[in-house]
What we know:
The chain is an alpha/beta fold. It is 42% helix and 20% strand.
Amino acid sequence: MKLLLLEDDFEYKMTIKEYLESLNYEIDDYDNGEDALNAIYENNYQILILDIRVPKLNGYELVKIIREDNINIPVIYITSLTDINNLSLGYELGCNDYIKKPFSPKELRYRIEQLIKLYYTNENSNKIELLPNFSYDIIKKQLFDDQKEISLTKKQNKVIFFLISNKNNFVSIETLRTEVWDDKYISEADIRVCIKKIRDKTSKDFIKNQRGLGYKIDRKE
């Protein structure tokens, strides 16, 4: 799962980043709002973690811009601001949660996990039910066939998570190359081999493909 972190205090930012990376989140970090805004338009993030008082473009302005462009990525503000007017403004602009500094890293972890459940699962559960008979624990990042866990490589897991997060929509090979392989050169044949290995561990119908559109994993209704 790919998260964006905006924080201009270097030590504080690195502490948060290292903790979240230890939980296997992929973190892109920025220290000013303009760079963070550009990154949001260039990448696919599942959650934005934003300080409010940052240079060039503050957290309020950033959220206002993306919401006006119908970008509905969940947002957590991290801030030392406590005034009710400041909190109200954040929610009015479209943030989903606040966490007040100083905070325990575990508190941030729980806030992130709650947003994942709310926005990326269909019910109050960590597991997403997938066709034909699989499930994926979005917190533990584990794939199951019935109750049996399927062993995955890190790259296979990233492919599966990215396809699941696109909610029944096809994802092109080029998008997979950008988001899963971080824009590093990899041939289409190598991507297809990765898909085939996932199918070998699951079923031929687990990942569907359509010429010209790409790949998708279907969720159960």
